[in-house]
Amino acid sequence: QILAATTPLKTQNATLQTQYATLQDQYTALQNQYVSLQAQYEFLRNQYVALQVQHTSLEAETKRKIAFLQEQINTLSKEKREIYEAVSYTHLRAHETEAEIVCRLLLEKK
């Protein structure tokens, strides 16, 4: 009778050992997936940080270019204003050449 009672226990024990081995394999597979996902996460995190640095750099470069262009526009605007600024007749006379003096004098005689 004892032998008869131990046979189902041996079968049950073998089944439990098989289930335990399966669960261990599944646990190992999940651990490997976790490690792989951690590596992917770190890789993506590093890429994100690199992109943030690149974005900051491009943003700073863009701001510098905009400031440079604004400065150039201001300079050109100032030069344009200086070209068209009105000057007095006395100022013109102070800078006229000999040829211009002769022409002016000839025109004033008429």
Describe the protein's architecture and organization.
- The protein is mainly alpha-helical.
- The chain is 92% helix and 0% strand.
- It contains three helices and no strands.
- The protein has helices at residues 2-84, 89-94, 98-109.
- The model has no long low-confidence stretch (mean pLDDT 88).
List the defining traits of the structure above.
mainly alpha; 92% helix; 110 residues
Quaternary structure state of the chains depicted? single chain
What is the average per-residue confidence, as pLDDT, rounded to a whole number?
Answer: 88
Cα Rg: 46 Å
What is the overall number of helices? 3
Secondary-structure element string: HHH
Distance between the termini: 151 Å
- Most strands sheet: none
Summing up helix and strand content along with how strands pair, one would put the structural category as mainly alpha
Q: Helical proportion?
A: over 70%
Spans where pLDDT lies below 50 across 5 or more residues: none
Gross morphology is rod-shaped
- Strand content range: under 5%
